[in-house]
Structure formats: C-alpha cells, structure tokens
Amino acid sequence: MRRMLIVILVSTAAFACEGPTYPLSNRCGAPGISVYADPTYDFLFKGPISSGEINSVVEWNAKKIWLMSNVKLNTANGEKSFKNYVVVSDGNDVDIKYTLPDPDDTHFYTINQGIASDEKIELIVSLWRDTGKGRGGAVHEADFIYVLSTDEWKATRVRVIDAPVDVVFGSALMLDESYYYIYATRNAFWNKDALIARVSGSFLNAWEFYDGYNWVSNADTMRPVISGVTDFFSVFKEGDSYYAVSYGALFSQEIQLLRAYLPYEGWAVKKILYCSSPVDHVIDANGIVLDHSGSTLNCSYNRIDQSLENFSNNSPGFIDINNWNY
Question: CA separation (Å) from 18 to 21, 294, 310?
C-alpha cells in the first residue's frame, strides 16, 4: 500500500463557505457541548484535490500550510493518485509547487509536522516500508528533518532524528515560550502512547527527550507522557493549562480532551468532546485542532477505510466544537 503526501499553503483570508453550518448528533459528548459541521475549509477538496487526510497545519505569513497524506488529485484524464506535493492556495485557487518523491517502490514518506520562517519550512518526515499488508502493516524505519526553501521550493534532507525505530515523531507540536514540544507515538497494543521531545528555536538545534524525570540527550530513555492517542493529535495552551485533543484508542470514535499543567507530565482525560457516527465501513481518526478561539475549537478529522488495507476516497470532516472549556 502506497501512501500519498501533500503539503498545501492556504491564505487565511476569509473564504466563501460551500454551505451553511448545521448541528451534528453528539451521542456521548459531555453535557453542554454542541458540535456543528463547518464548511470553511471544504474548498480544499473542491478543486484539483478530490480526497486525502490532514496530518497537521502550519501557520506561515498569514497563510496555512496543510500537511496531508493519501491524496487523490483530479486530472484532465480522470482521478489519479499522486504523492508528496506542495500546493499553494490563494483564496480558493490551488497551485502545486513541489513534490517529495518516494525513495523506491517499497518505501514511502509522510510529512508529519513543520515550523516556518520567512525563507524556509522545517519538516519532520517519516520513512516507512510497505509490507503489502495495508496501512496497518507499514513498518516505520526512520524520521528525518527536511528543510524546504520558500523561494525555489526545493527541499533538502538535513539529518536523521536519532531515536528508537518504533518511535514516530511529529504526532503533535506545540510552541511554548522558547521551546517547541514535539510529541511522538509508540504502539501499545490497541492504544498508542505519546512521548515527548523539545528543541529551542529550530528543529536543527539539539533535541532533548523526557525520560519521566528529566530532559536528557538520549532518546532511548524516553517514557510515555500520554496514553490512548492516535497518530496525529493537537496540543495547545489556554490560561495556565495545557490541553490535548485526540481520538482515543484504535477504532475509537470519541474525540477526547485531556488536560495537564505541564506539557510533559500529569496528563489526564478531562471530558469527551464528540462521538462521531461513521458509516459505510469508514472510521474517523486523527482529529486535530485547526483554530481555537474562546469557547470554540475548529477541528478536522480524517475518514479512513475500516479495513486499513486501502487509503480512503473520502475528504476530511470539519467541525466546530462549542463550549469545549466549560
């Protein structure tokens, strides 16, 4: 199974919505929470892109860079699968800028997280081996730091991230004061445990890893800081608390809210925000926060094939979760 990866640059100016918002059933969300479908970003899948999955979003010069995988594009000769593109969007117009090809027929990349400055975008890229057993059977081999220039749109692999091969970096990313906190995942049967590293200023600087007590230079000593997350989730700070938003264990349809007073310890589930109701052998996964303002979280979630053997022909869902912090 070959996974596709796409990066999209989008202006954050107001977009014309494809349709009105409407309330969604929330069968097990906490009392007082209301959830609405939000069409603001539907335009991403109304042009050359027909389907795909959103891994994360990077803010850059009043624009958004969307990091996506398993993408299908509409072409003059019909719908085709492509991979590893950078697409620039101005308003609702999409322009492809760059592609990062897979290294060979048995391996593929995913771009997980990024940070941006005026001249460059630093990316965390994972290398996977395709075993022929679908997305659930892919084997993680390494994580790299890439630097993508924003003038010529060329990327360079800078270095490997020295860490155990079963740890995948870039599940979530948060800037807090002078540090970027980079969350990773490790499989734990039906759950995924989250681990954490940090770096000051740039991915190219020296990384530190949390061993459950201290920040150290050896990634082999990392210990889990959160249990029960998915491949991609979100972490942000509000007031004196840190919040994580993630679907739960594999095949869980619950988007949960966790809270801690430090980004690297003390995480506990605070409430269930939303319980989706997928249909037609499609499950919802990898919910991330796109924007948070006051009492509303604007989120996306991916719709993937339940068998995990094929990538989905669906576009992500976009929702507003109201009263999340009540």
Answer: 10, 24, 28
